[in-house]
Amino acid sequence: MKRAFSLLVIPVAAFTLAACGGGKDDSGHSMSGHSMPAHSMGASSAPSASGHNAQDVMFAQMMIPHHRQALTMAKQAAAKASSPEVKKLAGQIERAQQPEIEKMTGWLRTWGASPSSGDMGMDHGSGMMSEQDMKKLGTLSGTPFDKAFLQMMIQHHQGAVTMAKTEQASGSSADAKALASSIVTSQSAEIETMRKLLASM
Hints:
This protein is an all-alpha fold. Helices cover 84% and strands 0% of the residues.
């Protein structure tokens, strides 16, 4: 009987050990299985990171003419401003925004969108100057130009920051949102600089 019992226990024990071993193997496979979906998830998130939505298109289409107007103002400062600080700031704006225009224009081409339709419907909340404002600035020089330039550019920058924050909140393109973040940071700092310059005049 003892021998018969031993013969029965050994196969059962062997089966139990095999089952435990199988559990480890299954666990290992299970972990490997989890890593696959994680990898797949990373792959599936890549298109959305590089993709875009309507907000991204609108952001680029509106920011391009916005930047172009800022460049027009900044170029006038080189000849008309009397303050070295204003001239320095204008140069800084020009060096920053021209490459951004080129970058956004490239995105729109890639997205199959027109780079020239975003200025339609831009209101005063965008910070854009009216044609009359631009003409008035063109008639000024010296300290009167410096003051008008700073006042107008502060408003202009505030509009850009608002537009960029909307892109941060609602955009899909990682590149566009990164540019929006850069605009918020750099132009907010320039607003503070311009306010200090204006207060000193």
